[in-house]
Amino acid sequence: MPGRCRSALKQPASVVCKDAPVDLLGMVELLHRHVTESLCDKVFRENRTAERQREWSLHALAWFWMAVMIRAPKALTRELDQARRGQDRLLPAVDATPEAFFQKSKGLHWRFFAELFNALGGRMMKETRLAYAQQVEGLREHFPEIWVMDGSQLAAVARRLKILWKVRAAVLPGRIFVLYDLFRGVCRVLHFDPDAAKNENLLAKEALAMIPEGTLVLGDRLFGHSGYFQELSQRKLWGVFRRHGLAKVRRLKILGQVRKGRKFLDDTLVKVGCGANGKTQQILRLIRYRSRGRRLDIFTNVLDPKKLPAHKAVELYGLRWGIERMFYDLKVVLNLNCFYAANPNAIAMQVYAAAIVYNAFRIIQARIAEQHGIAPETISTARLYPKLAVASASLADCELMWRETLRVNTGMKLNKPDYAEFSFASTMMGAILVEKKTRPRTKGRGRPPSTWLSWRKVRGGRKLMAKLS
User: Fold this and answer.
1) Are strands 238-242 and 294-300 parallel, antiparallel or unpaired?
2) Can you say how many angstroms the Cα of residue 68 is from the centroid of all Cα atoms in its chain?
3) 197 with 455: CB under 8 angstroms?
4) Which of 215, 249, 257 lies closest to 232, judged by CA?
5) Whole-angstrom Cα distance, residue 242 to residue 237?
6) b/e map 139-149, b = 16+ CB within 10 Å
7) Residue 63 belongs to what H/E stretch?
8) pTM of this prediction?
9) Running DSSP on this structure, what letter comes out for residue 129?
10) What is the dihedral of CA 316, 317, 322, 327, to 10 degrees?
11) Rg of the chain's alpha carbons, rounded to an integer?
12) Is 47 exposed, middle or buried (0-12, 13-18, 19+ CB in 10 A)?
């Protein structure tokens, strides 16, 4: 069973000793323990049709792409050369040319990486802590799982394939749709689609089949309509979504009303939807909140205010921002805005490798927070993750030196150094805590260009998409 952090042990970052040492080792060991060759072989056998593993097996590809996400090199040339020489513990030892790697990344279907991510999910969940979003921990009495759902388009393709030479607009290589576990702070489900223009509503309905019964799902206004709540009810799921602008409402009963100065909280039972047959109509709660210019209208199918009080629903919806932070960490912190290859299969491999590394980072982040008695959210991912990456790369270099030392000193009894005493193995707590921003947040960072195309709109792109379906 996953560990559980007690909220009583949490203390604000302001009272934490900023000179306290923080152990950074463990992420590579965590990945090595779960991303095993036996697991990769099992995933490959269960999903292969006519594919062969050869030198670049699924295990080697997975480890190579994870190493790339950890190190974020400017190009793959040096990493491929290191892998060929077998001189790096973080990289797989593969005696093959770079051309063989690119051919394999282009030809191997991305579903292998998707299934590997799903297989790793169950194994890595045993390592997670229920440490995040402690302010709404009391809701676990009624909702054992709270997940957030949202989608995001990927960055434009920088390197041009032959079919893109005459295309002036930016080409987006696809989109991702994610289910984020609010209490564990990890990505539970990630669906990649090479069609960047695919309707997000369709992706969301497909994702519902992967959510366990009784889960409370958070989402933005795209899903805040009667049709989507009908889907939730059929699957025995709960939802808290922002009201869609076109949703028609008929008030039935006022459940509660609170006014305090300029603050206003209104909880009303309503009938949402239209249609002559009434099949799309749903009985929901409409929670309206106003405070200092903030306007929030929420729909929920949790009709019992005791299970989900109105003020808790408002607080819970504010935590939906956690998935937006996850997209930022994937794209900016883990450099997913930069793709090393232009074909959709290689891009999907990079996406799933980034998600695996992200989950490992979040597990380590929760462990560090638990050891120091603070909430994980007080640790800055943008400051912690680069340090974890450096520690992982340095550990790999040290392991290489140790193996080489043993080789040249055959027959001698040597004591292995304690890596925990090295400078890269730890940092100070003050170096990874969140700092209040003094400058206004930059808007539009990482957004796709205004003029863009999906693969389907490119001449020759339909053939490419047909191979990926």
Assistant:
1) antiparallel
2) 17
3) no
4) 215
5) 16
6) beeebebbbbb
7) helix 58-71
8) 0.89
9) B
10) 160
11) 24
12) middle
Where does residue 324 rank: exposed (0-12), middle (13-18), buried (19+ CB within 10 A)?
middle
For every one of its 469 residues, what pLDDT tens digit does the chain have, with 9 covering 90 and above? 444 444 434 555 556 678 888 888 777 788 888 999 999 999 999 999 888 888 899 999 999 999 999 888 888 888 898 888 877 777 888 988 889 999 999 889 999 999 999 999 888 998 898 999 999 999 999 999 999 999 998 887 765 565 566 666 677 788 999 999 999 999 999 999 888 888 888 888 888 889 999 999 999 999 998 888 999 999 999 999 999 988 889 999 999 999 888 889 999 999 998 655 556 789 999 999 998 878 999 999 999 999 999 999 999 999 999 999 999 999 999 988 888 887 889 999 999 999 999 999 999 999 999 988 999 999 998 899 888 888 888 887 888 788 888 889 988 888 888 888 888 888 898 899 988 765 555 554 555 566 776 766 666 666 666 666 6
Contact 198, 224 (CB under 8 A): no
60 is written with which tokens? 């080697």
- Please report how the helices 98-107 and 58-71 are oriented relative to each other, as an axis angle in degrees rounded to 10: 100
DSSP string across 305-353: TTTS-HHHHHHHHHTTHHHHHHHHIIIIIS-TTS-S--SHHHHHHHHHH
* Pairing of the two strands 249-260 and 282-291: unpaired
Q: Where are the beta strands (DSSP E) in 92-185?
A: 146-153, 170-171, 175-181
The tokens describing 32, both together, are 């090595």
